[in-house]
C-alpha cells in the first residue's frame, strides 16, 4: 500500500460495485494512453470490492473541432453528468494561435463540472530517482488567466496592444486552500501507518502557499491572504500543519535544488500549471505524472503530458501517467485497494527498469509497458 499512501488523495466510500467511466481520448497520444489505462483497469484482479467497469467513449478535442465546429459537444457533457461516475481525459492539441470559435475542451470541462482543484502528486520511486521527494501540488483550476478573457486593441500610435484579464476570487482561493490543508492532514495520517524507513517525507505536514504578491499585490495578495486565513481561522483543526510561503520564481528555483523541502504546495492556476510540469522533470518524465481534476461531486483523471503530436501514432508514448491517473480516479471513488494495486504494479515495472519508453531512455512501446503493468497486476 506504500505507493498509494504516499499520494494521500481524498476518497469517499464506494457506493456501488458497478462504475461507469467516460473515456475522452481527444487528440494525439491521448488515443494511445487512454486505451492503455482502460486495459489496466480491466486487468485488475477480481475481488468482492473490485468494481465492474462500464466504459463510454466520448468526443472532444481540437481535431473534433476541426471536423464538427465544436470542441466539447453537449452530448459529452450530458452523458458525463447523467451516466458516469468519473472520467479519464487524454490530451488536447490546442493551437498556440487564435482560432475563431475554438477554446480548450479540458478548460471548459473543469468549468462546467466545477472541478475546482487539479491534484498532482509527484513522488520518487525507489531505485529510479536520485532525489527523494513526495510532493502534492494543488492547483486552483477555474480562475487566474485561464478564464480566457483576452482582447486586442489599437493604441493612439496605431500599434496593437493585447490585454488579458486575470481573476482571483476569495471563494475559489478558499476552496483550494481548504483542500490543501485537509490533504496535508490526510497524508500525515496515512504516513503514520508506514514504517519510518518507507516515509519519503519525515517531518511535520506542511502547506506551502505560492504567490507573487510582492508585485501583484491586489490579485495575488487576495490569494495569499485567503489561503493563509484557512489555517489562521481554524487553528484547532490545522494546528498540526505548518504553513509557509514561496514567491513563484523562488519556488521554481528551490524546487529543483531542494525538492525534499516541500510537502503540499498550493498555487493559483497558472503558477500551479508551470510548477507541476517542472516537478515532473524531477522524477524522470512528464509521461510519469498523473493528475485528477477534482470537484465535490465528480473527478476527471488526466495525464499531464499533453498531446505530443510529434510521436502520436508511433507507440512511443509513455502510458504510465494515464494509468496512474486511472488509479487516482479509483482512489477518489473509494476503491483504495484497487488503486494501490495499480500504483504498486507501475512502481514495480519502473523499479525493474527493463521495460521503458523512449522518454525514459528505453525502446519499449506503449503497449509493451501496458502489458508489463497488467502482468504485474
Automatic annotation (TrEMBL):
Gene Ontology terms: biological process: isocitrate metabolic process; lysine biosynthetic process; tricarboxylic acid cycle
Gene Ontology CC terms, in alphabetical order: mitochondrion
Domain Isopropylmalate dehydrogenase-like, chain residue ranges per copy: 20-373
InterPro entries, per database record: IsoCit/isopropylmalate_DH_CS, IsoPropMal-DH-like_dom
One Pfam family cited in the UniProt record for this chain: Iso_dh
Gene3D superfamilies per UniProt: Isopropylmalate Dehydrogenase
Lineage top rank: taxon: Eukaryota
PROSITE patterns documented for this protein: IDH_IMDH (PS00470)
GO molecular function list: homoisocitrate dehydrogenase activity; isocitrate dehydrogenase (NAD+) activity; magnesium ion binding; NAD binding
Family: Belongs to the isocitrate and isopropylmalate dehydrogenases family.
PANTHER family: DECARBOXYLATING DEHYDROGENASES-ISOCITRATE, ISOPROPYLMALATE, TARTRATE, HOMOISOCITRATE DEHYDROGENASE, MITOCHONDRIAL
Name this protein carries in UniProt: Homoisocitrate dehydrogenase
Amino acid at each position: 500500500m506504500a505507493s498509494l499512501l504516499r499520494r494521500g488523495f481524498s476518497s469517499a466510500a464506494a457506493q456501488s460495485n458497478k462504475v461507469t467511466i467516460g473515456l475522452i481520448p481527444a487528440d494525439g497520444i491521448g488515443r494511445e494512453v487512454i486505451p492503455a489505462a482502460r486495459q489496466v483497469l480491466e486487468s485488475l484482479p477480481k475481488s468482492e470490492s473490485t468494481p465492474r467497469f462500464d466504459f463510454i467513449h466520448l468526443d472532444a478535442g481540437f481535431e473534433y473541432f476541426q471536423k464538427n465546429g465544436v470542441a466539447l459537444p453537449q452530448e459529452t457533457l450530458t452523458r458525463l453528468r447523467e451516466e458516469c461516475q468519473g472520467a479519464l481525459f487524454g490530451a488536447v492539441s490546442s493551437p498556440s494561435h487564435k482560432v475563431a470559435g475554438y477554446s480548450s475542451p479540458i478548460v471548459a470541462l473543469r468549468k462546467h463540472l466545477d472541478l475546482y482543484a487539479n491534484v498532482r502528486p509527484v513522488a520518487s520511486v525507489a531505485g529510479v530517482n536520485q532525489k527523494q521527494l513526495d510532493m502534492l501540488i494543488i492547483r486552483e483550476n477555474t480562475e487566474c488567466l485561464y478564464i480566457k478573457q483576452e482582447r486586442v486593441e489599437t493604441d493612439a500610435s496605431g500599434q496593437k496592444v493585447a490585454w488579458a484579464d486575470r481573476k482571483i476570487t476569495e471563494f475559489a482561493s478558499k476552496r483550494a486552500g481548504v483542500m490543501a490543508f485537509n490533504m496535508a492532514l490526510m497524508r500525515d495520517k496515512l504516513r503514520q501507518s508506514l514504517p519510518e524507513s518507507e516515509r519519503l517525507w519525515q517531518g511535520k505536514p506542511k502547506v506551502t502557499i505560492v504567490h507573487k504578491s510582492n508585485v501583484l499585490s491586489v490579485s495575488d495578495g487576495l490569494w495569499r491572504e485567503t489561503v493563509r486565513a484557512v489555517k489562521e481561522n481554524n487553528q484547532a483543526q490545522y494546528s498540526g500543519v505548518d504553513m509557509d510561503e514561496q514567491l513563484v520564481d523562488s519556488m521554481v528555483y528551490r524546487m529543483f535544488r531542494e525538492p525534499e523541502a516541500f510537502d503540499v504546495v498550493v498555487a493559483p492556476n497558472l503558477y500551479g500549471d508551470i510548477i507541476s510540469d517542472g516537478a515532473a522533470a524531477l522524477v524522470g518524465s512528464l509521461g510519469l505524472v498523473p493528475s485528477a481534476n477534482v470537484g465535490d461531486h465528480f473527478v476527471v483523471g488526466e495525464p499531464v503530458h499533453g498531446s505530443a503530436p510529434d510521436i502520436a501514432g508511433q507507440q512511443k508514448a509513455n502510458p504510465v501517467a494515464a494509468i496512474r491517473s486511472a488509479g487516482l480516479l479509483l482512489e477518489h471513488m473509494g476503491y483504495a485497494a484497487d488503486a494501490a494495486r495499480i500504483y504498486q504494479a507501475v512502481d514495480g515495472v519502473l523499479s525493474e527498469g527493463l521495460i521503458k519508453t523512449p522518454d525514459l531512455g528505453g525502446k519499449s512501446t506503449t503497449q509493451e509497458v501496458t502489458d508489463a503493468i497488467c502482468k504485474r497486476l
